[in-house]
């Protein structure tokens, strides 16, 4: 009987730690472009996938040679979701992005799953205003 009590207490503590971590970690990873932040958000079941939008008016923060020997560029952009909430995301591109364009970026927290150039009309109007003022 004692072993069941210890096992139950262990499961309870582990559950509290896991659930607490899942709730707290998204706040700790927000606007962090590190690989660790991206990995944490990618496995956290409470972090949802969403599309955010950005303007391509920033220069790459870093240029480097990728694993296949090709040039790659790292971008850190301020993005806005459909509600107008801002968040900074970091991602790599295999080419320089043209200035003055719009991107739709699919994210799971700080983890960028995909991105693509979109027409101005595809960006919600309130988001376009935020991008233009940034």
UniProtKB/TrEMBL annotation:
Coiled-coil zones: none
Source species, domain of life: Bacteria
InterPro entries xrefs: DUF1093, YxeA-like_sf
PANTHER family linked: HYPOTHETICAL CYTOSOLIC PROTEIN (PTHR36433), YXEA FAMILY PROTEIN (PTHR36433:SF2)
Protein name: YxeA family protein
């Amino acid at each position: 009987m004692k072993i069941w009590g210890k096992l139950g207490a262990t499961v309870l503590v582990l559950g509290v730690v896991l659930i607490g971590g899942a709730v707290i970690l998204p706040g700790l990873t927000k606007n962090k472009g590190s690989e660790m932040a991206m990995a944490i958000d990618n496995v956290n079941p409470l972090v949802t996938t969403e599309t955010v939008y950005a303007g391509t008016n920033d220069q790459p923060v870093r240029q480097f040679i990728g694993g296949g020997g090709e040039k790659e560029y790292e971008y850190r952009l301020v993005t806005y979701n459909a509600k107008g909430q801002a968040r900074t995301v970091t991602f790599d591109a295999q080419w320089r992005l043209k200035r003055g364009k719009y991107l739709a970026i699919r994210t799971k927290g700080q983890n960028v799953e995909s991105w693509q150039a979109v027409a101005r009309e595809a960006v919600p109007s309130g988001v376009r205003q935020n991008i233009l003022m940034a």
